[in-house]
Specification:
It is a single chain. The chain has helices spanning 2-11, 13-42, 47-75, 80-90, 92-105, 110-139, 142-147, 168-197, 212-236, 238-241, 246-272, 283-312, 328-336, 339-360. 30% of the residues are buried. By secondary structure, it is mostly helical. It has a domain at 27-141 and 238-336. The two termini are 43 Å apart. The protein contains 14 helices and no strands. The radius of gyration is 24 Å and the shape is globular.
Length: 421
C-alpha cells in the first residue's frame, strides 16, 4: 500500500519538482548566507570576503535560472535528439559559476576544479555541433544539400586557403575541425596538471623554460580552428538554420567558451607585464591576482549567460500539449550518458588517422563514392536507400515538430521527415 502511494507520487513528479526545487534553494540560501556573514565578521570582513560575497550573489542568481530551464526541458522532453544536447549546454553555467566561486574561496585548490571547467568547454562545443547536425539532418540530406549550394569562401585573413569542396568534404572538415578541440582540450588539461605536479608549468609566466605559454598556444590554435569551423558551418547552412534562430545560440556558445579563455589569457598577460599590479612584484602574488580576477569576472558573466541561455535555449519550442513526454528517468539518464561522445571521438580519431594514411599514399580523401562502407558513418541515413546506416554524427532522428518561429507571417515552421504524418 505504502509502496503503491510512493510510486504514484513519483509518477507525478512534474507537479512537485518545481516547488521542491524552490524550497531547497531558498533553504540553502537562508542557511548559508548568515553562516558566511558571521564567519566573515569574525575575520574582520576583509577584501577577500567582500569578493566572495559579491561574486556569490551573482552565482546564486545564475544557478537557479539555469537549473530552472533544465527542469523545464526535462518536463517537456519531447525531442530527445535535440534536447539532450541543449540540457548539456545549459549545465555549462552552473559548472562554470560554481567552479569560479570555489576558486575564489579556496584559491590553492582551484587547480583541481579548473580542470573540470576546461574539459567541459570541449564537451559544450561537441554538444553544440551535435545539436546543429541533428537539427539539419531531420530536415534534409545535409551533404546532398550542400553539393547544390554555391561555394562558401573563406573569411579574412584566411582567404588564401584552398576552398572546401561543398558536400562531403565541407561537412567532414567542419565536423572534425570542431571535434579536434574535444580531443585536444582534455589532453592539454591533463598535461597541464602533470606539469603543475612537477612544478614546471609556470602558470601566468610567459617564459621559454616553462610549459604555460606552449599550452596556451596549443589551446589557442585549437579553439581558433573549432570557432572558425563553426562560423563556416553557419555560413553554409544559415538559411536552413534560420527557423531555430541560430545567431543567439552561436553568440552564447562563443561568448562563454571562447571569450572566457581569451579573457583569462589577457588577464595573465596584463598581470605579468604589471599593467595590473597586485601591490608587490612577486610571482605568487601576480598569479593569485590573475586567478582571482578571472574567477570574479566569470561569476558575474555567468549571471548574464544564464539569462541569455534562458531565451536562446528555451524549452517553449518543444512544449507540445497532449503529447506523451518521455519519463523523467529517461531524460535524466540521457544527460549523463556519454556513450555518444566516446563513439564520436573514436570515429574522429579513426577517420583522421585514415585520412593521414590515404594522403601519405597519395589518395584523395573524398574520392570514395557515397555510401562506401569505410565512411558509412559520415553519410546521412537517407543517402542510402536500401539499408539504413546508423550514423554517429547525423542521427536517425524522429519526426521534428519544433515551433522555432515562422517561415512567414501566416504559416508556422513545421518540418516532417518523409514517411511520417
Amino acid at each position: 500500500m505504502c509502496l503503491g502511494k510512493c510510486m504514484e507520487c513519483l509518477s507525478k513528479w512534474r507537479l512537485w519538482i518545481r516547488p521542491l526545487f524552490i524550497f531547497l534553494y531558498a533553504f540553502a540560501a537562508l542557511v548559508f548566507v548568515p553562516v558566511f556573514l558571521a564567519k566573515s565578521l569574525e575575520d574582520g570582513f576583509n577584501k577577500h570576503d567582500q569578493e566572495i560575497l559579491i561574486a556569490g550573489v551573482f552565482v546564486w542568481v545564475a544557478i537557479p535560472i539555469s537549473l530552472w530551464e533544465i527542469i523545464l526541458h526535462v518536463i517537456h522532453y519531447t525531442q530527445p535528439k535535440l534536447q539532450k544536447h541543449i540540457i548539456r549546454i545549459l549545465w555549462m553555467v552552473p559548472i562554470y559559476a560554481i567552479n569560479a566561486w570555489v576558486g575564489l574561496i579556496y584559491p590553492k585548490e582551484s587547480v583541481f576544479v579548473d580542470s573540470i571547467r576546461e574539459c567541459y568547454e570541449a564537451y559544450v562545443i561537441y554538444n553544440f555541433m551535435k545539436f546543429l547536425l541533428n537539427y539539419l539532418n531531420m530536415e534534409m540530406d545535409l551533404e546532398a544539400s550542400l553539393e547544390l549550394k554555391p561555394q562558401v569562401k573563406h573569411i579574412f585573413p584566411l582567404c588564401c586557403l584552398p576552398q572546401w569542396e561543398m558536400g562531403r568534404e565541407f561537412v567532414h572538415i567542419c565536423k572534425h575541425g570542431i571535434l579536434q578541440y574535444t580531443v585536444v582540450r582534455p589532453l592539454t588539461t591533463a598535461i597541464s596538471f602533470l606539469c603543475k605536479v612537477g612544478d614546471i608549468y609556470g602558470e601566468g609566466q610567459f617564459k621559454a623554460n616553462v610549459a604555460f605559454p606552449y599550452i596556451i598556444a596549443v589551446n589557442n590554435l585549437s579553439q581558433f580552428i573549432a570557432m572558425y569551423c563553426l562560423v563556416m558551418f553557419y555560413k553554409a547552412n544559415a538559411a536552413e538554420l534560420k527557423p531555430m534562430k541560430p545567431l543567439p545560440k552561436f553568440l552564447c556558445i562563443k561568448a562563454v567558451v571562447f571569450f572566457s579563455f581569451f579573457q583569462g589569457v589577457l588577464i595573465d598577460l596584463m598581470v605579468y607585464l604589471f599593467m595590473i599590479s597586485p601591490g608587490t612584484k612577486t610571482a605568487d602574488e601576480g598569479l593569485s591576482l590573475s586567478k582571482r580576477l578571472q574567477d570574479f569576472i566569470i561569476c558575474i558573466e555567468m549571471c548574464l549567460a544564464a539569462i541569455a541561455h534562458h531565451y536562446s535555449f528555451s524549452y517553449e519550442p518543444y512544449e507540445r500539449p497532449g503529447v506523451q513526454n518521455q519519463s523523467c528517468c529517461a531524460a535524466f539518464l540521457a544527460m549523463w550518458d556519454i556513450s555518444d561522445v566516446h563513439s564520436d571521438i573514436r570515429e574522429h580519431l579513426g577517420i583522421v588517422g585514415s585520412s593521414i594514411s590515404r594522403r601519405i599514399r597519395g589518395k584523395s580523401m573524398y574520392s570514395i563514392p557515397r555510401g562506401d562502407d569505410e565512411y558509412a558513418n559520415l553519410v546521412s541515413p537517407r543517402a542510402a536507400h536500401s539499408v539504413p546506416t546508423p550514423s554517429l554524427y547525423q542521427s536517425d532522428c524522429d519526426e521534428l515538430v519544433v515551433n522555432y518561429g515562422t517561415v512567414n507571417s501566416s504559416q508556422p515552421a513545421k518540418v516532417h521527415r518523409p514517411g511520417y504524418i
